[in-house]
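Hi U.,

Before I forget, here's the chain from the pilot set. I'm dumping it here mostly so it's searchable later in email.
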Amino acid sequence: MKKFWAWGALIIGLLYFTLPLVGMTNFSLKMRRGVYSLDAYAVVLGDPRFQETFVFSILMALATIVFGVLLVVPTAYWVRLKLPGLRPYIEFITLLPLVIPAIVIVFGYIRLYNTSSWLPLTGSVTGTNILLMFGYATLALPYMYRSVDTGLRSIDIATLTEAAQSLGAGWTTILAKIILPNVLVAVLSGAFLTFAIVIGEFTMAALLNRPAFGPYMQLLGANRAYEPAALAVMSFALTWGCLGLIQLVSRFQKGVQSAA
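Structure:
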């Protein structure tokens, strides 16, 4: 009886999540009346604004990932190695982006870094892009920090650090050549999640008036019928592709460790 209810709950859950996706995919293929076609996908992929916004968001995602790694890995490593008493406070700080809405964060940025402030980042395209990258890094901070912290928890960083120092390695060498390779899977997991967040984020990019993918999706959805459905399917596939890469990298790392 328990097995019956378990299978019933699983089937209901699968139907709840898959039926809307199936319906949306089916609708996106009906742009040409009476037949199934990929016309909506062709229109989206051929749109210069799609290409511009998608490339911009990819570049911003890569910049955010690099910045996040440079910020989080040394911080999490130092806290775990030298300042374990601060760990609860650091965890609390990294959780704040989950409870503070993005619109509050970006309005704070605009207020603090407008053209009349002491650091007028919004006065130039480069400065606004940097500000947007900081915003994306803030939104991704809970996921990146926890991924890295979990990776550091799985290795003996104290022994590795002492061994490296006994061989004359400096802190930069220890982080770049010892710690980072040992937590690479955790870093990649955080990086893929960051990528997914940046690609779909709307609020910050829209209020900072940057040509990102999130505002483009909203604009397309407000003016078209079939193309938004096609774009939603593509975005869904991209997000699940990132999650699949996380699983693939994790399994590969486990296989390498087992072989060793």
